[in-house]
Amino acid sequence: MSEISSYETKISIPSLAQRRKLEGAIIDQEPRAALLKRSLELIAEDHEGTITSQVKDCDGKTIPCLLGVSTPQCPKGVGVVVDKNGKVSFVYDAYGDDLEWGRKIAGEISANYNAIATQMALQAMNFEVTTQNYRTSHGQRLIQLEGSV
Amino acid sequence: MPTKIVVTIDSQGRMEADFVAFPGYSCEQAERRLRDELAHWGVMVKGTVVPKTEAQVLEELAQEEKCTARKCQKISV
């Protein structure tokens, strides 16, 4: 019987739980850390942004994070944080962000991470994988991966 | 019709996986394996699995015969 599964997702990387920065050897040693960094790099490429080591709040104060990305639409940046259990989440100052760019970019980081992880997962299942990027009529971005034998 | 898995990810990271042409219980096994492999990469999923109706399966078969190609921009992952 064929089926359709719908998933809510959470990213968990326990090995990053005690880390303050995402840099140096951990990128080489922990493939999931490299994947997380790549997810932010894709945002920087898509939105003409830059990878940063910190993000700012509306008063200019630094918000600690492992790694961040700053874009023209969200100049204060969106950062990645990992709690003591390894759960990955995002920090940004939403004050004045009427178009919710912070939330959108955080979602796109998750989507990029999930897309690369799905590509790896399907390849591990011996599927040939093709990846396509769509935009719906409402402008929403969709990533579609097809694994076929 | 060859088996395939089509995963669609929306802009907030929500995922939908379409398991096509898996006979019998192999579909459940593939779904479980996909979840396990995603967990290996740190993606923990929670959701629902809905078996396709006979009509959906027949529609898939009909679409396969048409071989309609969709042109889309490729993502750089």
Question: How far apart are the first and last residues' alpha carbons of chain A, in Å?
Answer: 18 Å
Strand arrangement across the biggest beta sheet of chain A: 2-5-6-7
Largest sheet of chain B: 2 strands, antiparallel
- Mean pLDDT metric of chain B: 81
Broad structural category of chain B: alpha+beta
Q: Beta-strand level of the residues of chain B, as a percent range? A: 25-35%
| Oligomeric composition of the shown chains | heterodimer
- Count up the helices of chain B: 2
- Number of beta strands of chain B: 3
User: How many β-strands of chain A, per DSSP?
Assistant: 9
Cα separation of the termini of chain B: 28 Å
Total count of helical runs of at least 4 residues of chain A: 3
Which secondary-structure class do the elements of chain A indicate? alpha+beta
Binned strand content of chain A: 25-35%
Mean pLDDT across the residues of chain A is 91
